[in-house]
Amino acid sequence: MVMSATGEVTDHRSRGRRIILWRHGQTLWNVERRFQGTTDVELTETGIAQARRAARLLASLRPDAIISSDLRRAAHTAAELAALTGLDVTHDEALRETYAGVWQGLTHEEIIARHGEEYTAWKRGEAVRRGGGELETEVADRAAPVVLRHAEKLPEDGTLVVVSHGGTIRTTIGRLLGLDARHWESLGGLSNCCWSVLGEGARGWRLLEHNAGTLPEPVLGDDD
Length: 224
What we know:
Elements: E1 2-3, E2 9-10, E3 18-23, H1 28-31, H2 45-59, E4 65-68, H3 72-85, E5 89-91, H4 108-123, H5 136-151, E6 159-164, H6 166-177, E7 195-201, E8 204-212
Parallel strand pairs: 3-6, 4-5, 4-6
Antiparallel strand pairs: 1-2, 3-7, 7-8
Helix pairs in contact: 2-3, 5-6
InterPro entries: His_Pase_superF_clade-1, His_PPase_superfam, PG/BPGM_mutase_AS, PGM_Phosphatase
Protein name: Histidine phosphatase family protein
């Protein structure tokens, strides 16, 4: 800690790079509990309001770069932050949600009724192509390298905002933390327009915040 000439206490220690993984705002299919997957569903008015509120908070963190899924619900969420920061958004289809084949468009109840065994196996942590679509590890294979590539371009204490989807964010976090794929589900989901924060540590990436809707606070004395 160092005290400046004005008496303000500052901390000059490097905090390392940060990755903020931000889920898109609400859509009608979210409200109806329909599996969206790669279906290009638009934000609701509530979703737009969520994105604007969250963008005001995240803009105060002064991000250095924004990348986003090219699906409209994510791209429009990212646009709210871009409007406040003046940053360009890099869109990448590799950040899209999990493709889930015939599950897409079905409600939660319909999936259980029609594909109950497949659903149960997935919840047990088995490698399942839900609806004949992608494995979670395949989603991580396409999304995590994109996130890392952009993170590597950051300045020493830079911040990258990744605007994506709940499933893709969970699998990406699991991959970056080095967790076994069977345990990715234990991370839990993200609410609409909430985010998780990864920080760069001496032994790799660490999960600093999860499913946050307020600004991240430093953890002090967590080993005490």
